[in-house]
């Protein structure tokens, strides 16, 4: 059925729905069972088998397979077998980790799944969008994402952005109309389509198609491929791995050449090359990164920060500016009306008088020009507006039913129904509605004082007269506004005019001023501590708000964002600065007031020009571009629009500024843990490379066989590396400066640290090898292998933190002890169970030799620990 060409009654019949009451529960269940959930079938995911096979595509693994083949030729079939078994184990491990990481991403996705407002069983409710069915009555307003296709039933200036469907980026107007002939999709103004964004206005819509039946579903089925996105860190490690692989191949060829030149047999020379290749390949590297990131995001989700884009975890670690909204993020967003300025007097709500005409007009404006509602003491809607309804209820006489104004707010709203409206938007900072008051068409306007006062020409007085507004009046009003603002109160101004003109942005002029209402929104308790922690962490917090500058500065001072010597700018002042001037001032500015969403983008750009990594919060429809532009765009889980959540890379489930700071700490810890795990793996590998190179250059026999190195790299090294990844993090992590974003993970000091530690372990291993050689080459190999394994297991403790093990202790990371214990037991089994000797090419060692091994393996760790103690 082509719904855009049908009459509404036909549509209602076809879909079996009622436009006023919506569907009832039973019908919904039946429909849901029939058409399935409202979700796009995701592109074919890789099957487990495919993931498993892909583990063998890696160049490193291919080198290992070649090593296995060479081993077979050199007569050690057992080695070949072990290599193959280990490779399969490795692939299984890789597959499990891949599936786990994928699952954890899935669960994050479901945490940020979109919702939809509907009318069902005759009542308004909010449901998960995936439960929508055709026939549902969907309520759309600015900031929503359209989650199904639908036909418009009622329209109040709805504008949507359909770029994801049509590619057209301008907003399109929607209409409640009917077409009698065929029109292309982009011109069907009476329809809305899934995945478009509501940028303005409101509408009621009947759902006509869900899931894969929607227009976007039809396109999605054509391009059913989900791309795997890799984070910058993963990409740079991939690049490092491929460079390493090339270097290894070159080195192997070189070693092979040297051995041949020495007059060795081809097969013996090959053994050297194979040992080197196996020693050098950090098999566990890439999966460790994936798994540590996945665990990090899980932890963040538990602490209310939902990561939508893995790259944000890395960026969080180097965030040095957080630009945060005030209302709801730094403050509680629990507004209460404090004082009212009306008829040149400051009054409390209880002091308003129903028989005063001026007061009555304020109350009309307060209730009628208001989209909130209070039911059972609970507020639904914008807290700024809910506070006004609470105020209305405090006025003496309201509940008594004496006269029109005695009516409850619902009754008043029914009595003077809304004829037209221009909704509030944070650019215009005004809202207007039109009603019949005693049969006279009247437009009520409320909004920010600086915008509204300019549009007032008259003032209504206490004695029920109206006269032109004088400069003296303006001065008095502004002075009062200043007094409210200095106390940190949000101020709303109220005005009206009697007029029958069609209501639009252009009719918000020639108004009559009524009064001011001030509202208190206390700072969140956690905000002050969080701002202090941010400061210690080298992060500047900047407040961005639509509120008045004086109000904003007063609150910013309370929270600790605005300190002596800081500056505050309004959006208008910002507009007068060019980029150079802004760049000069930006470090000083800690409050931006009366900003528009475009201002936000300029602020992000200016900080980014300074090379800073910026996190910015946003909740409105128009915030999406700024959220996308920021390095870490943060949306509000509770009050945020679907549009802002869609654009953000992190969502705060509790809307709380303090959660951002926790997420930064987690981001830093994840990065630190990954770095430590990488350091551990690479320094261990380096020690083996140095040993093999040394043996080759000096003309000694090959110190390890491939199986031994594989055992270390894949088994005994993986466990401590994982344990390092689980490290809970340095409690002082927020006392350090943010990481320099330009610096790669493998910076100079890190590389030299890896080199020194690798060299220390190598010296211990070479000593063991030389001592063993006095006995036999087989003993030498056994001793070298055992020392290498044990030294690397011990080295796991060194890499947990920058601090010495005596400072961090074992209690907060039992995994590291467990990893060490398991590795040591496995090594002991290899050395002590004779049946395993031939598999791993080891000999039985004497007690004295075992003690030598333990002693030598301890030396690097002792030295590294001493150096840590000295350095701190
Ligand atoms: P923040 O940016 O700190 O989150 P905000 O986004 O809530 O603040 P806006 O909602 O843009 O700020 O409000 C800016 C100004 O607009 C307020 O100071 C108030 O004067 C006015 N205002 C706020 N809400 C309404 C409303 N519903 N109707 C009319 N005017 C409003």
From TrEMBL:
Bilayer topology: Multi-pass membrane protein
Coiled coil: none
Ranges annotated as spanning the membrane: 59-75, 240-258, 270-292, 677-698, 745-771, 814-833, 845-866
NCBIfam families, per the entry: ATPase_P-type
Entry's localization field: Membrane
Cation-transporting P-type ATPase N-terminal domain mapped to chain residues: 2-76
Cross-referenced Gene3D superfamilies: Calcium-transporting ATPase, cytoplasmic domain N (3.40.1110.10), Calcium-transporting ATPase, cytoplasmic transduction domain A (2.70.150.10), Calcium-transporting ATPase, transmembrane domain (1.20.1110.10), HAD superfamily/HAD-like (3.40.50.1000)
Alphabetical keyword list: ATP-binding, Membrane, Nucleotide-binding, Translocase, Transmembrane, Transmembrane helix
CDD domains found in the cross-reference section: P-type_ATPase_Ca_prok
The name this protein goes by in its record: Ca2+-transporting ATPase
SUPFAM superfamilies tied to this protein: Calcium ATPase, transduction domain A, Calcium ATPase, transmembrane domain M, HAD-like, Metal cation-transporting ATPase, ATP-binding domain N
